[in-house]
Each structure stands twice: as structure tokens, then as C-alpha cells.
Amino acid sequence: MPSAPDPKRTGLLLSGGIDSAILFATFVNEGWQVTPFYVRTGCTWELEELRAAKDFISRLVPKKVDPLVELNMPLADLYGHHWSITGRHVPDSRSPDEAVFLPGRNPLLLLKPALWCHLNNIPQLALATLAANPFDDATPQFFTQFEVMLQAAIGARVQIVRPFEHLSKTQVLELNRELPLERTFSCIAPVDGLHCGRCNKCAERRRGFAELGLEDRTRYRDSSFRKLNFD
Ligand SMILES: [Zn+2]
């Protein structure tokens, strides 16, 4: 059995996107020892996300950051011809957030990192879910029940912490305007390694910067929207 956990250690799901990057920097700046996780699922944006996550971590050195832990949870055998695997018919900028639902995403992403934390004496695992997340596997009830399920399986509690669960995208961006957020990645239809500029997640990203009046230095493959008034 693992010994008593260290009180100031946390695991953190680092997706390479804006929200988890800011959460990561927040924990690090508050003196926590953070172990970041990237879960490789085989979705079409994996390489760009992973590159962004590693790049972001390298910019926080020499602060107290553990190496990125990469865990495999391949989903092609489960999701089949889903757009997240094939890259076809990806929800565009006009689609509702419900269109980007990935069945079981949070339990699939949480399970291995939570077990890793347990096996390495880390008492909690953080993720950057936001208030606007509309999905059933992002509710406080889900996270509590996930902790209970895990405790029944391993005999110990790993707390799933969500410091941003009452915040909007804009409020999260306001927490730290100094980070190199153009280095983060949050597109579900990347083109030549760049943000496409057209998908649901690119639209959310652009909207976040625009609402805050923050310069968006992201390189978008299709930047024609810059000529238009942002809706
Ligand atoms: Zn995109």
C-alpha cells in the first residue's frame, strides 16, 4: 500500500488547451508540486495538443514541475467512425457545444491518471472543467460518484478537484493575462499543425479572447473571420 500522501502535491490533466494551461500555471505559482498528465486517445488533434502541452511545461521551468506523464487510452476501437477519430464532419463554429460531446470522455480521461496518483501518493487530481460545460460527466455529482467508485475499487480516495467549475472562459482568461496562451492548442480539426479557425473549439477560443478584449495571437489556418465582425 502507498504511504501517507504529500499534502501539497496534485496531479493535473493537461490537455494542451487554454483552461488546463492556466490551471497548471496557477497551481505551480501557488507552490504546488504538480504532476501533469496527457492521455493519448488517438483523436485527430492529439499530436498538436501533446506538442502544446510539452511546450507549455517547458516554459514554466525551472519551477517545480514534474515531467509530463503520458498515458494511453486509445478510443478508435470504441468510437469507430466518430468525427474525433476520422476528422470528417467535425462540428463547425455554428454548432452548439452539445455537438462536441464525446461519450464517456471524463471517466475515460480520469481513470488512469487517478490510479497513477494513487500509486504514487498524490492525494488529488485536478481538471479544468468550466461552468459552461453542459455534459453529465462534468457535474459535481458525477465527480463525487467517480471518487466513490474509485474508492470502492482501490480502498483509498483520490479527490477530483475542479477549481474552475464556477468560472466562465473569460473569467479563466482573466486569471493570468501574461501566459503565452498562443502556444496552447484547442482545435478539433487541425490543418498542417495549426488551428483551423472554423471548428466549434476554435470559435470558443476566439470568443474568449474577443470578450475580454485580449489580443489573440493564435495562428489560424483560416483567418478570414478576422475581416468580419465577431458574432
Ligand atoms: Zn479548429
Q: How are the elements arranged and paired?
A:
Layout: E1 9-13, H1 18-29, E2 33-40, H2 46-58, E3 69-72, H3 76-79, H4 83-86, H5 105-119, E4 124-126, H6 140-154, E5 159-161, H7 169-175, H8 200-212
Parallel strand pairs: 1-2, 1-4, 2-3, 4-5
Helix pairs in contact: 1-7, 7-8
Bound molecules: zinc ion (ZN).
What is the gyration radius calculated from CA atoms? Answer: 17 Å
Oligomeric state as shown: single chain
Number of domains: 1
Tell me the overall shape. Answer: globular
Span between termini: 54 Å
Return the string of H and E elements: EHEHEHHHEHEHH
> Tally of extended strands?
5
Q: Could you give me the name of the CATH homologous superfamily?
A: HUPs
Biggest pleated-sheet summary: 5 strands, parallel
Name of the level-1 CATH class: Alpha Beta
**What is the mean predicted local confidence, pLDDT?**
88
Order the strands across the largest sheet as they lie in space.
3-2-1-4-5
Question: Structural class of the helices, strands and pairings?
Answer: alpha/beta
Low-confidence segments, given as residue ranges, are: none
What is the CATH topology descriptor?
Rossmann fold
Question: How large a portion of the residues is in β-strands, by DSSP E?
Answer: 5-15%
CATH architecture term = 3-Layer(aba) Sandwich
